[in-house]
Request: fold
Amino acid sequence: MIDKPAGLPTHPGPRARASVEDWLEEFRFGKRRRPEPAHRLDTDTAGCLVLGRTRPALAALGRLFAEGRIGRTYWAVVRGGPEAEAGEIALPLAKVSTRAGGWRVLPDPRGQPAVTAWRVLGRGGGITWLALAPRTGRTHQLRVHCAASGFPILGDRLHGAAAEEGLQLLARSVTIPGWAGRQTITVEAPVPAHMVEALSACGWKG
Reply:
């Protein structure tokens, strides 16, 4: 598990000069194989990124992610916020692409099922601190679900909540259940510097 910084892609792409993969040799620690990402985080999302060192481990982690057995909690600061203190967003999503605008993920009743549980952790000054637990793993799921619900994540330029501080979204914790004799483990990522001010405004004490 590593703490991925915001702004660094998980994998290299046509517009990315650097990615997490450029640093994976540092985690070889004398082993035959370097670890590889078992999933991905959006470029602008900071926090917990799961790595697997062997092919069997990567396959097992892939199955756990696909089956929804890996627990994930994200922290987000959103503009406005829900009226209730907890709830669930069930909104199918589809990836659409146009020549002019490239690809985007949008709500679509014909899209793939997507479910996000949420809970309010704090409020202040017109913004809200949420804990988000995705039950599915669709691309940009949390960003689209929050925006479609009327409370876009701060710093999400794609969905109408641009902020100088950057995207206020952190993969806060991951819980991996035990398999093949392994113990269940939970890891937690620290709050990145660019989210401290907004979280503090919502009551986070550090």
Notes: The radius of gyration is 17 Å. The helical segments are 55-66, 141-148, 196-201. Residues 168 and 195 are 6 Å apart (CA to CA).
